[in-house]
Amino acid sequence: MKEDRLDILRPCEKFTFIRLDLYDRDGTEKLFAGHVFDRVVHLAAQAGVRYSLENPHAYVNSNLDGFINILEGCRHANVPHLVFASSSSVYGANTAMPFSVHQNVDHPVSLYAATKKANELMAHSYAALYKIPCTGLRFFTVYGPWGRPDMALFLFTDAILNKRPIDIYNHGMMRRDFTYIDDIIEGVVRIMDRIPAPDPAWSGERPDPGTSFAPYRIYNIGNNNPVELMRFIETLEDVLGIEAEKNMLPLQPGDVPATFADVKGLTEDTGFKPLTTIEEGIKKFVEWYLERYVA
């Protein structure tokens, strides 16, 4: 799938692809030394809560060592703005809804979440020390065509079409702020030119986690409309015209029962407004899936 995504991008004007592991310190240094970047949008990471339980070292290599290489590259190349992907998983044990960037996020429940919180802290330190403008975006359950095969929508669709039961965790008592990929892209593009400045109202006596005395900002980027998992599945069943066989299971380690993004800051600063309903998003995903895997 990665190679096919790349084939779509290759004809684009001024597009250059370099195959590089961000864990490769020398390679990353050469990348920054050999190019001039107006913006760096860092979306590469070892993703997924569940896999972090099986292979924690992959998360240290990619999300910590890889990210420090990006920060060092931005520092030495004087990059005007670094935008990086964080995750809604950083909210961890928080239960106050909707999740706000102004809440503390000090209780992660997975290593993946801990590495994404670490990315935010690392970026803040570079913004404070070297005045590198840094913006972190906390993604909320991204779905859509070309999405990861380990995500729920892909797994559910594949299982239903192949007459296998689908695993539903926490006995279906889950709510997710499912966010369609086009809305995510719109938010990322909008934020690229919104270079953060120090917040003059920031106070060390009442520190706001979402802003800073440094050129640093955190935003939630989500649909701002949490959906019951069972409704999500029912919508998929309607689009496919097939009723799923359901295997109800308990909540998995590292998972949380609900997510809900407060996107007020991103809306106020960029005009971001998610537009895709789950009915529209699931329909587009199924059309892509059927064309790619069934047609």
Question: What would you say this structure looks like, in words?
Answer:
With 295 residues, this protein is of the alpha/beta class. It has 10 helices and 10 strands. The chain is globular. It starts with a helix and ends with a helix. The relative contact order is 0.15. The mean pLDDT is 95.
Reported for the largest beta sheet, the result is: 4 strands, parallel
Please count the beta strands (DSSP E, at least 2 residues each): 10
**Number of helical stretches of at least 4 residues:** 10
| Structural classification | alpha/beta
Instruction: Give the helices and strands as they follow along the chain.
Output: HHEHHEHEEHEEEHEEHEHH
Low-confidence segments, given as residue ranges, are: none
Helix content, binned percent: 40-55%
The termini sit apart by 16 Å
Overall geometry comes to: globular
- How much is the radius of gyration in Å? 20 Å
What is the overall pLDDT average? 95
Tell me the strand order in the biggest sheet: 1-2-3-8
In short:
The chain is of the alpha/beta class. The protein has helices at residues 2-9, 25-34, 49-54, 56-77, 111-130, 152-161, 181-192, 229-240, 264-270, 278-294, and strands at 40-42, 82-87, 134-139, 142-143, 166-168, 175-176, 179-180, 216-221, 227-228, 246-248.
